[in-house]
């Protein structure tokens, strides 16, 4: 089983958008397209995450995980 580092929510409205980071550097995104199409899941590589979303993720990241998440995302 994958060991989770942290979950980071970047929801900007009532639709969910959460990223889950794992120790093996995999990233799972759980999000809602709309109220009738919720909890969609996708596995992402860091290069698939927009710069804007990376900024949001780092801003919302718990301080104790920030360095590791920045490393996984190859964030400047």
Largest sheet: 4 strands, antiparallel
Domain count:
1
Number of helices: 2
Order of strands, widest sheet: 1-2-3-4
Helix content: 10-25%
Q: Strand portion, in percent?
A: 25-35%
Number of strands: 4
The mean pLDDT is 94
Radius of gyration: 12 Å
Distance between the terminal alpha carbons, to the nearest Å? 30 Å
Low-confidence stretches: none
Q: Tell me the structural class.
A: alpha+beta
Overall morphology: globular
Oligomer: single chain
- Helix-strand topology string: EEEEHH
Short description:
By secondary structure, the chain is α+β, with helices and mostly antiparallel strands. The protein has helices at residues 51-60, 66-73; strands at residues 4-9, 17-22, 27-31, 40-44.
Reconstruct the topology from this structure.
Blueprint: E1 4-9, E2 17-22, E3 27-31, E4 40-44, H1 51-60, H2 66-73
Antiparallel strand pairs: 1-2, 2-3, 3-4
Describe this structure in words.
This protein has two helices and four strands; from the N terminus they run E-E-E-E-H-H. The protein is of the alpha+beta class and 76 residues long. It has one domain (4-73). It has a four-stranded antiparallel beta sheet with strand order 1-2-3-4, with no helix packed on it. A hairpin with a 7-residue loop joins strand 1 (4-9) and strand 2 (17-22). The chain is globular. The model has no long low-confidence stretch (mean pLDDT 94).
């Amino acid at each position: 089983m994958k060991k989770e580092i942290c979950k980071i929510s970047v929801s900007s409205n009532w639709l969910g958008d959460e990223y889950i980071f794992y120790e093996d550097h995999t990233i799972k995104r759980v999000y809602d397209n709309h109220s009738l199409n919720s909890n969609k899941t996708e596995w992402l590589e860091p290069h698939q995450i927009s710069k804007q979303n990376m900024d949001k993720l780092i801003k919302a990241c718990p301080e104790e995980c920030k360095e590791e998440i920045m490393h996984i995302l190859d964030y400047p």
